[in-house]
Write a structure and sequence with these properties.
The protein has one helix at 12-66, and strands at 69-70, 83-86, 90-97, 100-107, 110-115, 121-132, 137-147, 153-161. By secondary structure, it is an alpha+beta fold. It has one domain (12-165). A hairpin with a 5-residue loop joins strand 7 and strand 8 (153-161). The longest helix has 55 residues, at 12-66. It is rod-shaped.
Length: 166
């Protein structure tokens, strides 16, 4: 009588153990991937806020520094505010239009309009305050942005002195 030698194979218990290890490792990998994606989304939202907020604040500050006076047509201490600046080269106006901060430059009778903010970030509040001292003038700006998909808000502040006023 012939004796058959058993071929090497996995037992049912070994297969169950290997499948359990594979399932655990797969769950860990999926969890790490989901966590990484959530961190990426948070970083992207923060980048959008920072990019749009700093661009808005820098653009307003640059225009205020180059201005010689704040025009009487400005809407101050209210939201949405309107800031009209006069300089030797023309006038610059900042206001909110359809949720975006808009800059209007009028130089030698030619008007140029452009949005400073846009995309997934909208302006929910824009307040300008004029500060006058015996020697100079300044403009305090507060802009509040909303990330449209998430509803998260963040505010940016700056106070800038008019160079032409001292």
């Amino acid at each position: 009588m012939k004796i058959f030698k058993s071929k090497k194979a996995y037992t049912l218990l070994e297969l169950v153990i290997y499948l359990a290890l594979f399932a655990v490792l797969s769950l860990v990998l999926v969890r790490v991937t989901v966590t990484g994606y959530n961190v990426y989304k948070t970083i992207r939202i923060n980048r959008d806020f920072t990019e749009h907020g700093l661009t808005a604040i820098d653009t307003i500050s640059r225009a205020v520094r180059n201005a010689s006076s704040v025009s009487a047509s400005s809407t101050l201490s209210a939201s949405p505010g309107v800031l009209a600046l006069s300089s030797s080269t023309g006038t610059t106006t900042f206001d909110v239009s359809n949720g975006a901060l808009r800059e209007t430059d009028v130089v030698s009778g030619v008007s140029t309009v452009g949005n400073v903010t846009g995309g997934k970030v909208t302006v929910s509040s824009l307040i300008f305050e004029k500060i006058t001292t015996a020697k100079s003038q300044a403009v305090k700006t507060k802009i509040t942005l909303i990330h449209t998909p998430t509803g998260r808000t963040e505010s940016f502040y700056v106070t800038t002195v008019l160079r032409g006023s001292y």
